[in-house]
Amino acid sequence: MKFKLLFSFLLAGGMTLSAQQGYKDGIEYFRADQPEEAEMILTKTLNDASTDKAASLYYLGQIALQKGNTAEATKDFNEGLQANPQYGYNHVGLGMVALKAGDKKLAGDEFKAAREADKKDAAMLVDIARAYYNADPVAYAKEIEKYIEDAKKVSKKNPEPSIYILEADMLAPTDPGAAAGYYEMAQQADPNTNYPEAYVKYARTYFSVNPQFAIDKLKALLEKQPNSALAQRELAEKYYDSNRLTLAAEQYGKYIANPNHFKKDEIRYVALLCFGEKFQESFDLAEKILKEDPNNIYMQRMQFLDMAKMEKYPEAKQYAEKFFSNPTANKDSYVASDYTTYGTVLQELGQDTLGAAQYETAVQLNPGKTELLKDLSSAYTKAKMYDKAAEAQQRFVDSGDAVVNDYFMLARRYQNAAATATDSIAKLAAVDNALKNIDYVLERVPDNATIALTKARILFVKNNNAPDQATVDAFLAALAILDKDPANKEKRKNDYTNAYNQIANFYLNQGDKENAKLYFTKFLEVDPTNEPLRQYIENMK
Would you give the DSSP letter of residue 430? Predict the structure, then answer.
């Protein structure tokens, strides 16, 4: 049984952290435009002995400023200056606050104070240029250009990589190709890979143009920094974004093994393990997450799906019940595939009617997804609710999304409804609909034996499960198609024997023993070991 798997991910907080990397990972994440992740690391490591507190506070202040919290940002920058008055970057931070308040003069004074701390720090000059750019790239175009040029002069012998990164960032929204070129220049100017964001931003900017180039760039970064959580995570994300889910799962596995991974990424990894058919591993990791977060509805979903995928249906039912009774759930917590999967589990356990009810819920939840009507029709069929199965398939066909095979399936659904009808009027209506749809299909696919045989069987039902001339004609038309391939006598033996038997019985009922014997003999030729039939034919003499 195949299940339709939905990947729903919760970006929950939390992370594990290696003391070896510490606050520097937070800086890398910030410079790679991931402030949420950066804040987690920088906050967690702020008071570690190995942390450069002034540097951490500078980046925490910028994160606060991005959130619009100028008071918190000002506090962080001032505390950074108290921690190390010579670390001029916190003056740059205070200049950012001033620019946000529209005080250009105060901002200039803070930037001047920053430069006095280290006049040859090209990276600081770039940060000042970036401060102006973030405040207003048009109003401060001259200031931006001036500080970029100053940074180039200061680092003339050894170009400062962050210059190219800022220039690329400025180009990226309108000219990703040119931006990618500048990111590559930053990479060339940074042989020690102190600016991994040059690779990460290249990959993000160029991904929409050429996903493979973007992925190759991240792989190059990983060769230089094989233990970089940022590089591992970005490569896994790009595999995921390019729908290369098997590779994404493999790369996430490497990333999750890194002590600097974020716990929120474990949730996506659980789903990818399931996609990669590592169901038990997916289940076990979900179990680990649930021990820390018992009501995590996404992990409850994955455990339910993992059990369903492993065809452990009693367990799948147990975990589904837990999932559907989650105390934190609301009306938006469940999606259509949750109910269709549960419906399949119930039907596998023999609870066909209850299973069909789950498919009904799925359709109600997502009425615009017309494909669900076909699933509902199949569920009704399994539950022997043939009238409803035909009705659901008809609704799908009426939606306008049907192809020829859907009309064929509709004919079969009406055939079942007719065969089980207890009311003669309802039976005739179902037969008429079945014939109308099978004729529609035959007009478009005239040489398909299965379709032709289906018409014959519908006519058989119409005549109260006895062959008439119309049934015989339909069987003969189907046999003509089957005869085009001599191998069908073996491959489709049952189709031949059924057709010959019905035709022979028709002639027998008509008193035409000669033709009856002819078709019984054809039946025996296909099924030569059928001794009762052989004796019957001999007795016909």
Answer: H
Enumerate the β-bridge partners of residue 15. 262
- Residues paired with 525 in a beta bridge: none
Q: Which amino acid is at 44?
A: K
Q: For 349-491, where are the alpha helices, taking DSSP H only?
A: 352-365, 371-382, 386-398, 404-420, 424-444, 449-462, 469-482, 488-491
CB-based contact 521:485 (threshold 8 Å): no
| Helix, coil or strand: residue 98 | helix
Tokens at 222, concatenated:
């990983």
Tens digit of each residue's pLDDT (9 = 90 or more) over 155-176: 999 999 999 999 999 999 999 8
Contact 88, 117 (CB under 8 A): yes
> Do 202 and 214 meet the contact criterion of CB atoms below 8 Å apart?
yes
CB 166, CB 129: distance < 8 Å? yes
pTM value is 0.74
What is the amino acid identity at position 240? Y
Q: Is the pLDDT of residue 12 over 60?
A: no
The C-alpha atoms of residue 389 and residue 414 are separated, in whole angstroms, by: 8
pLDDT 10s digits, 96-107: 999 999 999 999
Query: Residue 487, SS3?
Result: coil
pLDDT at residue 249 greater than cutoff 50:
yes
Is 365:335 a contact under the CB 8 Å cutoff? yes
Q: How far apart are CA 105 and CA 99, in angstroms?
A: 9
The radius of gyration of the chain's CA atoms, rounded to the nearest angstrom, is 35
Q: Which amino acid is residue 165, in one-letter code?
A: I
Residue 440: Cβ-neighbour burial (10 angstroms; 0-12, 13-18, 19+): middle
Count of C-beta atoms within a 10 Å radius of residue 10 = 12
Helix axis angle for 245-256 and 263-275, nearest 10°, is 140
Enumerate the β-bridge partners of residue 262: 15
Residue 338 CA, chain-centre distance (Å), reads 14
Determine the Cα–Cα distance for residues 53 and 79; give it in Å rounded to an integer.
Answer: 9
Question: Coil, strand or helix: which one is 209?
Answer: coil
d(C-alpha 143, C-alpha 396), whole Å? 62
Task: Give the list of residues 6+ apart from residue 377 with CB closer than 8 angstroms, or none.
Answer: 389, 390, 392, 393, 396, 409, 413
Looking at residue 360, its amino acid is E
- Type of residue found at 488: N
